[in-house]
């Protein structure tokens, strides 16, 4: 279980997150939705150790990981797939994937091929391009590569920041369907930050709404998608008179 309690984060002198609390149970996909500037990426980057929280706790399976640097967070079982994919364009697909194991490589070197084979079976298109440069892949394939790289460390939780960005609807559906496979086959908890609110709520088990750095709503995806405030603000559905 991932449990976040009263998390606050400042960037410089500006407070971005205000007492944010949420949890993810084993076997869940949890979506975090909100407008641009709500603090969604800051939240994921704080959990991943790229920003240091100024207050609050982050507990993963009874172990406190809040405030750890990024390399230690990965080693504890939490992996981030960043916004914009951020693959290494001048490295091959295989090299990009193997970098995802950097935190555990020497301890679990014997499992490297097993991990790689598992990821390639999940993303067969990557297998076709295994020795091609990551920068030569299509946008959808690069996103698959970024997710595969995040999974190479066999995380307990994977955080995804806007995985649908810039992709065609068909590819978006494939990516989101893959998240369900990750949850069901690997048992990995998934935290999904997504501007495509309709798709996110269709994929997630539960959802939270982040507004100006504060959690203002939470519930099952069905409850959130039928909430009048969410319908009006994020789904473009007018409610009332």
Q: What's the CATH class label?
A: Alpha Beta
Summed up, the helix count is 10
Distance from N terminus to C terminus (CA atoms, Å) equals 42 Å
Q: From the 3D coordinates, which CATH architecture would you assign?
A: 3-Layer(aba) Sandwich
Total discrete domains: 1
- Described by its quaternary structure, the protein is single chain
Q: Tell me the strand order in the biggest sheet.
A: 6-7-8-3-9-10
- Global geometry: globular
What percentage of amino acids are in beta strands?
25-35%
Radius of gyration: 18 Å
The secondary-structure class comes to alpha/beta
Listing every helix as H and every strand as E from the N terminus to the C terminus, the arrangement reads EEEHEEHEHHHHEHEHEEHH
- Strand segment tally: 10
CATH fold name: Rossmann fold
> Major sheet, described briefly?
6 strands, mixed
Contiguous low-pLDDT stretches (5 residues minimum) are none
Fraction of residues in H or I helices: 25-40%
- Any idea what the CATH superfamily is called? P-loop containing nucleotide triphosphate hydrolases
Mean pLDDT: 92
């Amino acid at each position: 279980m991932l449990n976040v309690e009263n998390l606050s984060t400042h960037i410089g002198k500006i407070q971005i997150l205000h007492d944010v609390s949420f949890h993810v149970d084993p076997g869940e996909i949890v979506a975090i939705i909100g407008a641009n500037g709500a603090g969604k990426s800051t939240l994921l980057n704080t959990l991943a150790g790229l920003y240091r929280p100024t207050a609050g706790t982050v507990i993963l399976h009874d172990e406190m990981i809040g405030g750890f640097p990024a390399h230690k967070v990965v080693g504890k079982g939490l992996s981030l797939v960043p916004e914009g994919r951020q693959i290494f364009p001048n490295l091959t697909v295989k090299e990009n994937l193997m970098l995802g194991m950097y935190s555990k490589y020497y301890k679990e070197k014997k499992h490297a091929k097993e991990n790689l084979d598992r990821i390639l079976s999940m993303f067969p298109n990557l297998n076709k391009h295994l020795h091609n440069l990551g920068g030569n892949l299509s946008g959808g394939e690069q996103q698959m590569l970024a997710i595969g790289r995040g999974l190479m460390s066999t995380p307990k939780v994977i955080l995804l920041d806007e995985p649908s960005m810039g992709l065609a609807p068909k590819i978006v559906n494939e990516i989101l369907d893959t998240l369900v496979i990750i949850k069901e086959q690997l048992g990995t908890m998934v935290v999904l930050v997504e501007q495509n609110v309709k798709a996110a709520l269709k994929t997630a088990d539960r959802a939270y709404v982040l507004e100006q750095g504060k959690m203002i709503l939470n519930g099952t995806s069905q409850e959130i998608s039928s909430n009048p405030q969410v319908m009006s603000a994020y789904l473009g559905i007018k409610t009332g008179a």
